[in-house]
Design goal:
285 residues, alpha+beta, 7-stranded antiparallel sheet, 5-stranded mixed sheet, 6 helices, elongated
C-alpha cells in the first residue's frame, strides 16, 4: 500500500510539474521564432498608418522630427501589449499618444514556433517628421509661447496649467503647482529663502529626509549649480506615484522642482524635459 501511495504521489507530482511547465511555456514571450510576427498589411503600411494617425500637436514645436524604437509584445491573437519606448528620452513624454495610436492599429499575424502560435517580442524603428512647422515662423513662435509657463521667478515649457500658487511669509516659501491638461503629470516648484551660510546644512537635511522616504538620491551638476536629485515611489490606494525631484541653491533661494505621475516613464522623462527647459530669473550670483 505504501509503495502504491508513493507511485500515485510521484505520478501526481509529475503531472503537476508538466502542467506547470505547459502553463509557463504557454505564457512565454519568444525573442527568436521560426516565423516572425508581422503586420497583416505589411510593415510599410503599418508605419504609414501610424504616422497618419499620430497627433503631431502633442509634440513641442521645437522638434521638426522625432525618432525612437517601439518595443512591444505580439499576443497570440495578434494584439499588441507591453509597449515600451526605446532610444529617445523625449518620446517618453508622448507615450500615451503612441500607445493610443498602437491600440488602433489592426491586429498582427502572430509568430509561430515549432508549428505553434506563440507570444513574441518585436522592436520597430519609427521616425516622425513635421515639415510644416518650419513654414510659418510666426505661428511656430506663438505655439512655443503658448507652451511656456512664465512667472516673475522662473519659466519652463510644458502643456500644463497653474492649479495653485501661494506664499508663506513666515517660512519665506513660494509654491507653484501645475497639472497637465490630461491630469497625468503634476509639477511642483518651490522657492525658499535661505541663509547662504547654511547651504551645506540644507543639503544634509534633504539627504536625511530622502533616507526616511527610502528615496534614491544623488549629488549632480545641474547647469551651473551643485544639485541633488532624488526619486522615490509613494504607494496610493489604487496607484503608485513616481516622484522625481531636483534641489539646488541659486542666489539666496533653495529651489525644489518635482514631477509626479502614476506612469514611471512619463514621470521620468517629463522631469528630464523640465530640467532642460527650466530657466531661473532670480539668480543673483
Amino acid at each position: 500500500m505504501k509503495i502504491l501511495l508513493i507511485i500515485i504521489f510521484t505520478l501526481f507530482s509529475s503531472a503537476k510539474i508538466q502542467a506547470q511547465e505547459s502553463i509557463e511555456d504557454d505564457e512565454k514571450v519568444y525573442k527568436f521564432v521560426q516565423k516572425k510576427a508581422a503586420p497583416k498589411q505589411g510593415i510599410s503600411k503599418f508605419l504609414q498608418a501610424f504616422t497618419n494617425e499620430f497627433n503631431s500637436l502633442v509634440i513641442p514645436p521645437k522638434f521638426d522630427e522625432i525618432s525612437f524604437k517601439l518595443k512591444f509584445v505580439i499576443e497570440k491573437n495578434g494584439m499588441l501589449s507591453n509597449i515600451e519606448i526605446k532610444e529617445n528620452e523625449h518620446a517618453y513624454a508622448y507615450v500615451e499618444e503612441i500607445i493610443r495610436v498602437l491600440k488602433k492599429a489592426p491586429a498582427w499575424q502572430p509568430a509561430e514556433n515549432k508549428g505553434k502560435i506563440v507570444r513574441s517580442v518585436n522592436v520597430v524603428p519609427v521616425k516622425l517628421r513635421f515639415p510644416m512647422r518650419s513654414v510659418d515662423k510666426t505661428l511656430l513662435e506663438k505655439a512655443i509661447l503658448e507652451r511656456t509657463v512664465n512667472t516673475e521667478f522662473f519659466e519652463f515649457e510644458c502643456n500644463c496649467k497653474l492649479i495653485n500658487s501661494s506664499t508663506n511669509q513666515y517660512n519665506k516659501v513660494k509654491e507653484f503647482a501645475y497639472n497637465t491638461t490630461d491630469n497625468n503629470v503634476f509639477y511642483s516648484i518651490t522657492l525658499k529663502e535661505i541663509l547662504l551660510t547654511n547651504t551645506e546644512n540644507h543639503f544634509d537635511l534633504i539627504k536625511a529626509d530622502a533616507e526616511k522616504q527610502n528615496a534614491t538620491i544623488n549629488e549632480i551638476d545641474y547647469k551651473t549649480y551643485r544639485a541633488l536629485e532624488s526619486n522615490y515611489i509613494v504607494n496610493g490606494n489604487d496607484s503608485k506615484f513616481y516622484n522625481n525631484t531636483l534641489y539646488f541653491i541659486a542666489g539666496n533661494y533653495l529651489i525644489t522642482i518635482t514631477v509626479i505621475s502614476t506612469n514611471e516613464q512619463i514621470s521620468k522623462f517629463n522631469f528630464a524635459d523640465l530640467k532642460q527647459t527650466f530657466k531661473l530669473k532670480i539668480d543673483k550670483e
